[in-house]
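A quick aside before the break. I want you to see a complete sequence-to-structure record at least once, exactly as it would be stored in a machine-readable document. Don't worry about memorizing anything.
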Amino acid sequence: MLVSHVKRSVAVLGVLLSGFATASSIEAQTMAQSGLTAVDGLRVGHFTLDGRPTGCTVVLAEDGAVGGVDVRGGAPGTRETDLLDPVNTVQRVHGVVLSGGSAFGLDAASGVVRYLEERGIGYAVGPNVVPIVVGAILFDLGVGDDPTIRPGPDCGYRAADGAGTGPVEEGSVGAGAGATVGKIRGMGRAMKGGLGTASVTLQSGLTVAAMVAVNAVGDVVDPRTGQVVAGVRTEDGSGLSDARALLLGAESGGEPPNPAANTTIGVVATNAPLTQAQATKVAQMAQDGLARAIYPAHTPGDGDTVFSLATGVFDGEVQVGTVGALAAEVMARAIVRAVETAAGLPGIPSVSDLGQGR
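That is the input. The structure line, written in tokens, reads:
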């Protein structure tokens, strides 16, 4: 039944993308790209702290990008999301910060603001500039020995200072350093999450990309196969239990998940020229990719948040529905890559540690 559903979903996606590319060509092009930096006008930087697995990841749009956001988790931690409402005045943003450290990690954005102000980048207000930097955090304070080690302004500044346009490093870096998944039965049976990215460029030149830090209470499922890639482990720790089966009652009891210790946060971006309302719709559609690749998603214990950026350098015709469908596709792929590229920690194995990698 599940495999049939996946096949139907792929078929529907192929119809949506008619005239642009087939589902199989999307996969080939996704693998060939450099991730979020495939979108012209964006730079990405990470900074990973010493002493405890945590850090932050910064996306810079120094020429400004139209921004949108969609928040669906029940426990979000965010900065400046109200500003991204299409009815409000400011339409363009200059930076996005994804950070570990729970609410403390929101301070990382202050360092990015300082970095941009020093370079005269921001929203002009008379003789002044005010950098518009939005952000979201995930909870990783329970990973490692010292929860007082968490991202702050210096982390954000250093991530911004090191940002570049080359291929984006993935796995246990930046905001993904302390990320974990599969916590339906508590941290004792969890696996390592991480940060992943993916992109697609169509023959027309339209590019859509995603980058995501995966710290979900649920499992990561590859939508192409319907198989669990990483998630809650069996009681002996050697295999995967499958959260779908657990929620259907295959295993009773166990430690309940912490309702505030999760969250998947990410960015989708395109070179298409979009309005802020259209960028918001793309962020909403990208959440479908999150739901395809994480089970369960958008729970009361997750703060799932997706930002969208549109740099507008593409001068061809664009259908917002196509951009959104592609955003969901690359979001799902980036989530799978986040766990496939992560490195394990003591007591928190990775995909490769369990021999689950391809």
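Two observations worth writing down. The first strand starts at residue 43 and ends at 48. The chain is about 25% helix and 25% strand. We'll return to this after the break.
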